[in-house]
Amino acid sequence: MKIKTKITIGIGTILLTSGIVFNLTFRNILNERMENTIKESVSQIMNSTMESVKYRNSLSSTEPNEDKLKNGADYLVSYISLNNSCNIQIRDNSNKILASNTAVEFGTEIDKNSTKALNGSAVILIKYSNSSVYGILSYPIYIDDIQLGTLTIEKEYNDIYLSNLSTINLITVSELVIFLCIFFTALLITSTVTHPIIALTEGVKKIEEGDYNFSIKSKHNDEVGILSKEFINMKDKIKEQIQTIKEEQLKVETLEKHREEFFNNVTHELKTPLTAITGYSEMLKDDIVIDPDFKKRAVERIYVESDRAHKLVLDLITVSKGQTQISEAISEIHMKPLISEIIEDMSLKANKYSLNINYTIEDGIVLGQQNKLKQLFINIIDNAIKYSFNSNIISVNCYCKENFYFAEISNSSMGIPENVYNKIFDPFIKTNSSPDNYSSGLGLYISKQIVTSHGGNIYIINGEIVTVKIEFTLL
């Protein structure tokens, strides 16, 4: 009985110790990855804010650099906070706060960061507070190679923290259940199972070292055999969980990367019209323009760029809604009257560019959302109008074949460049060959989402004649 008790206690101790080591190790790995993701995010915000500071200071070229930063601090804090969903603090070279909306609870940390940043280097701090995590970054502000002060970014990453915490809790609970099952199974071991116990002990050590590619064979059908089988099941389940966690972690990292790329593209696309609007409006506001023709051009440019920004924001709203929007009712749609009406409307725009839309439309019934399909065909025909060259004809051919409804929209073109064609359905992908030059690069991306949501396919045939081919299943 004493031998049995010692063996049982020994196995339980080994299992418990290895479980604690595994949990702590994996917890540290997950936390390290989370913190690296946060550091990369605030570093990207830093790069974006540098451009904002430089542009703001360039608007007042006659003021001393120190006065530029002081007078523009409130605007920069408001502008950067709004565009990056974060809090900002700006200090001068004497470490005096010029403007701030950062949290009071991080005052000490921000003071230390700002003091270090005055020495000429960026400082990043990860701070855990109130069941969340924050990234705090301070860096020196330079204008014309002269240091004027420091800027601190404070951003909460609650979604990343909760995802990380959920993963850690899942691992902890799973391990506890598994190890308790194994421990209680070990109570059945007798003193005659020394060899299998050695094999189990070696297996525990391998798990502790991260090696899950082994097996323990047992010919016993007694308690020892049951323990060996349960141990292998435990090992396989842990291995599967680790693989699942790695896959989920990769998905999170990929999603974060796509979100950062999307944010950078949005910032880039909005920067051009907003820069022009701000520049011209400030010149008109300060009444520094005398030439009436220039004033007229400035007003026209402000109108054009405002309209461009408005259209881009509408496209972004469409994209950002994704699956969260209220779905339009699905109904049986006759394609001929729907497409004919769109062609009639779009012909007005085509005529402005001396273009004609020739069409042959066969009727067919498709199950879908009428407004979404209207948006789809408006986008495609509008693109054909924008990018038509060397011919004044746009062709629309719609027909039924077997169980599918096909729509082909063709226009004469200079051809789509290879680097654009390979990513044609990604957001913000566009060429510079449009006559109006104000494409947001979101039309084909939105069109692809609409077609996919209707269970259809869309692809583009490139060349001197560019053809967009769409297919839906007939009802």
From TrEMBL:
<feature type="coiled-coil region">
    <location>
        <begin position="228"/>
        <end position="265"/>
    </location>
</feature>
<keyword id="KW-0812">Transmembrane</keyword>
<keyword id="KW-0175">Coiled coil</keyword>
<keyword id="KW-0597">Phosphoprotein</keyword>
<feature type="domain" description="Histidine kinase">
    <location>
        <begin position="265"/>
        <end position="475"/>
    </location>
</feature>
<keyword id="KW-0902">Two-component regulatory system</keyword>
<feature type="domain" description="HAMP">
    <location>
        <begin position="191"/>
        <end position="243"/>
    </location>
</feature>
<dbReference type="InterPro" id="IPR036097">
    <property type="entry name" value="HisK_dim/P_sf"/>
</dbReference>
<dbReference type="Pfam" id="PF02518">
    <property type="entry name" value="HATPase_c"/>
</dbReference>
<dbReference type="InterPro" id="IPR003594">
    <property type="entry name" value="HATPase_dom"/>
</dbReference>
<feature type="transmembrane region" description="Helical">
    <location>
        <begin position="168"/>
        <end position="189"/>
    </location>
</feature>
<keyword id="KW-0418">Kinase</keyword>
<keyword id="KW-1133">Transmembrane helix</keyword>
<keyword id="KW-0808">Transferase</keyword>
<keyword id="KW-0472">Membrane</keyword>
<dbReference type="InterPro" id="IPR050398">
    <property type="entry name" value="HssS/ArlS-like"/>
</dbReference>
<dbReference type="Pfam" id="PF00512">
    <property type="entry name" value="HisKA"/>
</dbReference>
<dbReference type="InterPro" id="IPR005467">
    <property type="entry name" value="His_kinase_dom"/>
</dbReference>
<protein>
    <recommendedName>
        <fullName>histidine kinase</fullName>
        <ecNumber>2.7.13.3</ecNumber>
    </recommendedName>
</protein>
<dbReference type="Pfam" id="PF00672">
    <property type="entry name" value="HAMP"/>
</dbReference>
<dbReference type="InterPro" id="IPR004358">
    <property type="entry name" value="Sig_transdc_His_kin-like_C"/>
</dbReference>
<dbReference type="InterPro" id="IPR036890">
    <property type="entry name" value="HATPase_C_sf"/>
</dbReference>
<dbReference type="InterPro" id="IPR003661">
    <property type="entry name" value="HisK_dim/P_dom"/>
</dbReference>
<dbReference type="InterPro" id="IPR003660">
    <property type="entry name" value="HAMP_dom"/>
</dbReference>
<feature type="transmembrane region" description="Helical">
    <location>
        <begin position="6"/>
        <end position="26"/>
    </location>
</feature>
<dbReference type="GO" id="GO:0016301">
    <property type="term" value="F:kinase activity"/>
</dbReference>
